[in-house]
Amino acid sequence: MKTKKLYLETYGCQMNFSDSEIVVSILEKEGYEITTDPSEADLMLVNTCSIRDNAEQRVWNRLRELKSFRKKNPALRIGVLGCMAERLKQQLMEEEKAVDLIAGPDAYRDLPDLIADAGDGRKTANVLLSAEETYAEISPVRYDSNGVSAFISIMRGCENFCAYCVVPFTRGKERSREPETIVKEAQDLFEQGYREVTLLGQNVNSYRWLQENVVPVDFPALLAKVAMVSPLLRVRFATSHPKDLSDELLHTMARHPNICDSIHLPVQSGSSRILKLMNRKYTREWYMDRILAIKKILPGCGLSTDIITGFCSETEDDHRETLSMMEWAGYDYAFMFKYSERPGTLAAKKLSDDVSDDIKSRRLQEIIDLQQKLSHKSNQRDIGNIFEVLVEGFSRKSNDYLSGRNSQNKVIVFPANGAKPGNYQQVRVTDCTSATLIGETVKSNV
After folding, report:
1. Would strands 4-10 and 43-48 be described as parallel, antiparallel, or unpaired?
2. What is the pLDDT of residue 397?
């Protein structure tokens, strides 16, 4: 039989990339082989993101491009997966002639049937959300991996209902995976040669496994279980919600050297007034207390964040509070965005998107400029220090240099000198840019 070719594009967050690995695992059992060449595909799938309008527009444009491949292969089937499929099923079915099948984040087990129905010339869809689906027993296919680091999804869904966010509507009810399946996945990855795993969830620190007559497992307990797989396996996690960041979690990180000293803690705004409108469930003061706890319990911990500027009714005073929070926290890096109203969210229903795009753009540029200064200052402090770096691959600019990250999640580039991906290297930092540390090898560990 001719091998069927699957071409898969993924947009958006790490959870989407993790989901794509599950999709490939399911479809491999149906005889599909992944390809990076769209011209040889029998099936094209686009795993989508709805977090901002710009993300959705990219997908609409890409779908128009992909349908041109039908000229060569009229039997080609094109499918849309993920959050945009969940949110815009009707529009995709009615307006986009390129789309043959649609599957929401909880419907990937149904893909073989959807593909079969689409093969008969029918448009097919399943966007039912589940209160139980975690894909726990499916072994993801790491089809686009460097062989060193991998993602493990530990939970799905979200129930925080931040006013600006579509995730609770596109990914459904929060539910956690059984801990032993997570530990086994980490163990299997380590035995395959992986040396770093990142535990993923919309809110990893709200993870909780409850079962009758069994001691509950919360996120600190799960993190410790994964760390004990091997001292040579680095463990990271993303993303934390400030309201759930406990001292217990920080002390767990401090007890296990292979849990990386790096925390991504989205602030979104430095203004308590705006945070309340965003329904973030914490204040400026609460957030600052959590940063102080990190710095006390984990000195030198890497710290990154997310920031949204121009949210509904944001004033210049609110904006200045965000800038002052950035300076006070001294973030190593940040993901920074203009507010984009999303249909169906609490903000779209109850608040007015009343900050002009010109003001949003100006404020965003001020935030970006400040973060570049903070990132550069943070990296300059590392000059002269020695870090253990896990080698991930060659530098993008030269095969004479390797690239990897330290525990604080900073990228370090240094001469290869015979080291290979998966090795641990002791590297002294000699120079830096705002984005990258530059170093020299002191010695190789493993």
Report:
1. parallel
2. 87
Q: How far apart are CA 56 and CA 61, in angstroms?
A: 9
| All residues at 6 or more sequence positions from 63 whose CB lies less than 8 Å from its CB, including other chains | 46, 78, 80, 96, 98, 99
For 417, half-sphere exposure in the C-beta direction (CA atoms, 13 angstrom radius) is: 15
Q: One-letter amino acid identity for 15?
A: M
Give the pLDDT score at 122: 86
User: Which stretches in the chain have pLDDT values below 70?
Assistant: 1-2, 444-446
Question: What angle, 0 to 180 degrees and rounded to 10, lies between the N-to-C axes of helices 219-227 and 247-255?
Answer: 10
- Residue 446: per-residue pLDDT: 52
Summarised one tens digit per residue, pLDDT across range 311-355 is 999 999 999 999 999 999 999 999 999 999 999 999 999 999 999
Q: How many helices (H) does the chain have, and how many strands (E)?
A: 14, 21
Sheet arrangement for strand 302-309: 262-264, 302-309, 333-338
Distance separating alpha carbons of residues 369 and 129, to the nearest angstrom: 41
Closest by CA to 176, choosing from 127, 224, 211, is 211
Round to whole Å and give the CA distance between 3 and 5.
6
Q: Judge contact between 154 and 204, C-beta under 8 A.
A: yes
Cα diameter, the chain: 66
Structure tokens at 1: 């039989």
Q: How far apart are CA 85 and CA 92, in angstroms?
A: 8
All residues at 6 or more sequence positions from 203 whose CB lies less than 8 Å from its CB, including other chains? 155, 158, 160, 174, 239, 240, 241, 244
pTM above 0.90, yes or no: yes
**Cβ distance 260 to 235 under 8 Å?**
yes
Is there a contact between 38 and 66 (Cβ–Cβ < 8 Å)? Answer: yes
The full set of domains in the chain, from first to last, is 4-126 (3.40.50.12160), 149-381 (3.80.30.20), 386-444 (2.40.50.140)
**261: three-class secondary structure by DSSP:** coil
Around 114, how many Cα atoms within 13 Å sit in the side-chain half-sphere? 26
Whether 132 contacts 178, CB under 8 Å: no
Strand partners, 403: 393, 413
Torsion over CA: 370, 374, 375, 380 (sign)? positive
- pLDDT tens for 89-125 read 999 988 778 899 999 999 999 999 999 999 877 899 9
Question: What does the alpha-carbon distance between residue 190 and residue 179 come to, in Å, rounded to a whole number?
Answer: 17
